[in-house]
Design a protein that fits this description.
This protein has 350 residues and is of the alpha+beta class. It is built from 7 helices and 7 strands, in the order H-H-H-H-E-H-E-E-H-E-E-H-E-E. Helix 4 crosses helix 7 and helix 6 packs antiparallel against helix 7. It comes from Sporosarcina limicola.
């Protein structure tokens, strides 16, 4: 565009110089006095000099306002094509090219943001796969060791034999739980989860949930307590299997860190039922709370993930609770970490 325009301007300039000369020569029959020749040259310059000045100004204007921005946009687009998104466009004029450059800059920033998010996601995904591999290998190695030991006569009596079988059974259940987590997580990511809502009395249901998980907590030597303040006639509509998995995830998360405190509490108002799980021993910072329900997130990453936390339990819990028209939140009160589930109360009569 640049060279085509300049070539056109040069052609017009030459024409403006030569045309008056030819006209003058034709009028004088190619035999002119010095005065006539001077007149002809002056006439040519009269047309040419203003045109030269206008052409210079116009050329500079076009170069600054059109050619240079387009060259910069072309350079930036080439950088983007090569994968470099750190190349801002410095053109702030309020004209057509300026508006086009502004839209181009927004596109660049959007691509850069998406690339940053994708890189962070890939890093979390790789960490997630590493943790899955670790969590699968650990119980498998333990099962293999105990089976080999039993085959070599490691159990000296029936009591020892049953003890080792219980350990193997526990490890198998750990594997089954992990695989179940992954299955639910995959279904939630692909929007394949469904919920079969069933109305139930919230107070009785919380007692059932605690009866199941409280035993597991107590077996780990952690003091546990249930505070059930839900009104007797308060009803909720939940998928009991989903809710059992949610509570199981929260309990596993709590007992991973709990030292002297594990508490389940239930209460209600006129619109919602609240169920909370509280534990001490956490190492979370308040600024981490908004990230806790993100897939793959685990605060343990910064310490090498020593507890093998996959970072999907709370994400699964959030998806399941939302599926039941509820909400789930995290908070910190002094040295206590609290996860609270909110579920809507049913108005219909059972």
């Amino acid at each position: 565009m640049k060279w085509g325009l300049l070539s056109t301007l040069k052609s017009i300039l030459i024409l403006l110089i030569i045309l008056p000369l030819l006209i003058g020569l034709l009028l004088t029959g190619f035999s002119s006095s010095r005065e006539q020749l001077f007149f002809i040259i002056s006439l040519s310059l009269f047309f040419a000099i203003p045109y030269i000045l206008v052409t210079m100004v116009l050329t500079r204007f076009i170069k600054i306002r059109v050619v240079k921005p387009l060259e910069e946009l072309t350079q930036v687009s080439n950088e983007i094509l090569s994968g470099n998104l750190d190349c801002p466009i410095d053109y702030n004029r309020n004209d057509e090219i300026g508006r086009f450059a502004a839209h181009f800059e927004k596109m660049r920033l959007s691509l850069k943001e998406n690339k940053t998010e994708q890189m962070a996601f890939e890093q979390k995904r790789r960490q997630f796969i590493t943790n899955i591999t670790h969590d699968l290998k650990t119980p498998l190695a333990s099962i293999s060791g105990y089976v080999e030991g039993l085959g070599d006569g490691m159990a000296v009596d029936e009591e020892d034999f049953q003890k080792y079988l219980k350990v193997i059974d526990k490890k198998v259940k750990e594997l089954d739980t992990l695989i179940g987590q992954l299955k639910v997580f995959n279904e939630s990511e692909e929007d394949q989860l469904s919920s079969k809502g069933e109305e139930t009395y919230a107070k009785d249901f919380l007692d059932e949930l605690y009866e199941t998980c409280g035993i597991d907590v107590a077996l780990q030597g952690i003091p546990c307590v249930l505070i059930n303040e839900i009104e007797n006639d308060c009803r909720i509509k939940v998928d009991k299997d989903h809710m059992q998995r949610v509570i199981s995830n929260l309990v596993n998360n709590a007992t991973r860190y709990a030292v002297n405190t594990f508490e389940m509490k239930g209460w209600n108002n006129h619109q919602k039922v609240y169920i909370s799980v509280t534990n001490d021993g956490h190492h979370l910072q308040p600024e981490e709370l908004p990230k806790l329900f993100d897939r793959y997130y685990s605060g343990e990453y910064r310490n090498g993930n020593p507890k093998g936390h996959l970072g999907i339990g709370l994400s699964i819990s959030k998806n399941l609770v939302h599926l039941m028209k509820g909400d789930i939140k995290a908070s910190i009160n002094k040295n206590r970490f609290i996860i609270t589930i909110e579920l809507p109360i049913c108005d219909e009569v059972i």
